[in-house]
């Protein structure tokens, strides 16, 4: 079996590392050459030269320090290549891939130490199922959950007063695109000894790398921008600390939440074009946001690339390449579910779907999709109105996206 060589020149730019991350430098096999793309290792079980080598392989490493495999639940070469690529790109000590973004979030919370008697302060703007997970799985066994507004200056005093064990935020909130100050939050977390977790799905490592801002664990729903083509499901957690990495590895094994070799192959393929796709998507998103801002049927646009967004200055500091993400939301002046449904049903190019980050432009209605599990009062407290529509901008021609939105808004 060929082994992973994860070394990359330190002077390679991010775009180059995205393209070459996870590639193998294979040993000569005499088979006529080496593949530029790693093959898919579909096997569930791996053999070794002798029983001593098998015994050693259970540790995860060969005697010379190479990665070793025994059983697919404990890892496979494709997932390892994907993990290695994200480790280097995000600047962590290691990463563990999972079968979905929610599985990655679950493992990150467990690795951070959420148990009976511990306390977590989380952003009230989190993805709906993340809040539901914390309530149904952790709060019911004695974990104290506090949801707070991380975009208010008072948050730092609250964190110092509550002294949580874990702090959980998102780089860009769903769907109102609110931005949190990663540097300030991680600084307070170090003061009080809290483990920090950030879901960085929406910003992607192309725009933001939270470990550089002091965070301990970075979560991605790799189903979204990293995969990018709407054809694979997975998640990944990158750790800044070896102790947390070991916990993640143990939970991945025990929970059986591993990423399959087929999905890992697709994730790594998507990663190679991440920079190109996100650059185009961000450029398109800004043009779409500027169009919507001027449309008479639209009351408000939530996009950090707009100068009137409350987090525009912060986003300019935290995000690279002078881009602000490819996700935005807007509110219709007709604040009714019926008006939203009429608009969505009139769309011809933009696809009505609950996911995001694909090459296609996707439109969704948060009250029935991403935040379906939340009560009406909770949606109101989060600022999600009846007329709020989320748009994940794709790589199509921006003029075509705008034409489709215009005809649906004008109908």
TrEMBL record:
Coiled-coil intervals: none
Keyword field: Pyridoxal phosphate
Residue ranges of the TM segments: none
CDD domains: CGS_like (cd00614)
Top-level taxon of origin: Bacteria
Pfam family, one: Cys_Met_Meta_PP
Cofactor(s) required for function per UniProt: pyridoxal 5'-phosphate
Matching InterPro entries: Cys/Met-Metab_PyrdxlP-dep_enz (IPR000277), Cys_met_metab_PP (IPR054542), PyrdxlP-dep_Trfase (IPR015424), PyrdxlP-dep_Trfase_major (IPR015421), PyrdxlP-dep_Trfase_small (IPR015422)
Family: Belongs to the trans-sulfuration enzymes family.
UniProt-listed PANTHER family: CYSTATHIONINE GAMMA-LYASE-RELATED (PTHR11808:SF85), TRANS-SULFURATION ENZYME FAMILY MEMBER (PTHR11808)
Protein known as: Cystathionine gamma-lyase
Organism: Dictyobacter formicarum
